[in-house]
Amino acid sequence: METNLADLPVRIFHVLSRELGRDNLWVKIVDFDQDPIFSMKQLEIDNFLKRDNCCDQVLRRWGNRGQTVGDLLRRLQLLSRTYENEFDSIQLQLRRKFKILRWVPDSEEQVTMAVDEETIKLECKAQGFPCPTIKWYTNDSKEPVHTGRSYTVLRCKCSTEHQYKCVATNEIPEGFSFSEHYKRPGKLWNSVLESDFVDITSLVRDDELCESCKNFEMGRLSQILADDEKVENKTIPVPSNLDSTLRAADKVALIMSNCSYVHLPELMTPHCDAQTLADALQKMNYKTVTLADLTLDEMRYFIREYKKLIGDGVYAVFYFVGHGFEVNGQCYLLGVDAPADAHQPQHSLSMDWLLSIFRDKQPALNLFLLDVCRKFIPYDAIGAFVEYSEQFKKFHRAHRNMVYGYSTSGGVGAYEVKGEINGVFMKYLKNHVSMEISVMSMLHGVLKDIENDPKQIH
Fold first, then answer.
1. Taking every annotated instance into account, which residue ranges of this chain make up the domain Caspase family p20 (predicted)?
2. How many other CB atoms are found less than 10 A from the CB of residue 393?
């Protein structure tokens, strides 16, 4: 340990030089500020890199400064906190002592959690030498779900249904010049450490943030389409000419919430609004499908699929919360991929289009709840929308069981209030939706509450 680096035996000197030269690893050892033994200026580093066998000269430079094997090992041990196992091979060549795995600082803190708005970062606190290989498992997985000291999961339903643990292992590898030294009889050369399970259920958010969650809801929609559901022990009659996979349930709801717009301002509350309504409808035995952050094409696709659930006698609810606007009394809804200048028909989903999709349906209730801005677009953009809407006039006809509910009046924006879980519309809708009153009375009550809301700021 006290041997000067310049005085190492020739074989060890050249092995160490080769290891330091691998991807210029020696540059990471340099300290620009604090340690005088390892300090170098950038110009010196650049000059060394231009030379043949530069690592031989770097070792001699460090040796001439009085650096010993012990000094280098202590430096590498410190750097391992940042670079993990990058310096293990060098330390093994210098015969650093094998250290079994242990929890640092103590066994009470095996896994730490760092939580932000969207993710949970789990970090395994196992330490030893060589640096451990760390694998993460869920409570129902036999194979690891991730390898690495830290594991970041989304705060969404698919992640928080699990508990997590880490399993750390370290051992001396086979087939190296140092292997025999460490594996002599009676010497310990491997260890394993396994943490307790960590439960992150309490950190779940109501948002759906990942593709896995979205795919799960897609699967639920497909299942509803395929299932032969019974309500109150009575099978819903199906005409003989209707395919059984298109059978409608008695109460269905399609809920769409768009927050994370690519080119438009991000919204705060839509996902929470969607989950609030879904929870309320599920308590009333609605079969709900909640989808988040959909593109325009995805919105159109799921509306077409949702149409298959709507038949005679069905109570159907469609709710959309996100960006939108109004043209000539018609609402237009925007997917998360809408461009910054979305005031063109091809970039939006019109309610004319949606009604044309449902034109041949006769549900007992067809409720559309639109939680969007209804601000008017610039005058010079109106012409394209007028021309676009002409194609739908032939489908226009009154449906006595169709009801619209808007979050705001025409020409006015919908609002979120900082610090509140729900937008203004859902803040009051959730108080009325479960009441045993007519739909029209419910909507009138909500709008009256909104008018009296003291926090609405225009």
1. 249-374
2. 8
Q: How many domains does the chain have?
A: 3
Q: What is the mean pLDDT of residues 263-284?
A: 91
CA dist 11 and 15 (Å) reads 6
Confidence of residue 336 (pLDDT cuts 50, 70, 90): very high
- C-alpha 160 chain-centroid distance: 12
328 versus 197: the higher-pLDDT residue is 197
Q: Average pLDDT for residues 396-414, to the nearest whole number? A: 72
Name the domain boundary from 46, 75, 96.
96
In a domain, 458, yes or no: no
pTM over 0.85: no
Q: How far apart are CA 5 and CA 37, in angstroms?
A: 12
**Does residue 405 fall inside a structural domain?**
yes
Q: Which residue, 319, 424, 323, 423, is CA-closest to 373?
A: 323
Q: Which residues contact 443 (CB under 8 A, 6 or more apart)?
A: 403, 405
290 strand-pairing partners: 255
Query: What span, in angstroms and rounded, lies between the C-alpha atoms of 372 and 172?
Result: 62
Q: Do residues 178 and 109 both lie within one domain?
A: yes
Q: Could you report the per-residue pLDDT of 24-82, keeping only the tens digit for each? A: 888 988 876 666 778 888 898 899 999 888 999 999 999 988 889 999 998 898 888 88
Residues 208, 192: Cα–Cα separation, whole Å: 36
Q: Are residues 223 and 194 in the same domain?
A: no
d(CA 275, CA 290): 8
Tell me, yes or no, whether 399 and 300 share the same domain: yes
Among 96, 112, 128, the domain-final residue is 96
Query: Does position 414 have pLDDT exceeding 70, yes or no?
Result: no
Q: For residue 196, what is the domain's CATH number?
A: 2.60.40.10
Whether 262 and 401 map to the same domain: the answer is yes
Q: Are residues 193 and 221 in the same domain?
A: no
3-state secondary structure 83-142: HHHHHHHHHHHCCCCCEEEEECCCCCCCEEEEECCCEEEEEECEEEECCCEEEEEECCCC
Q: Is residue 369 part of a domain?
A: yes
Residue 174 belongs to domain spanning = 100-203
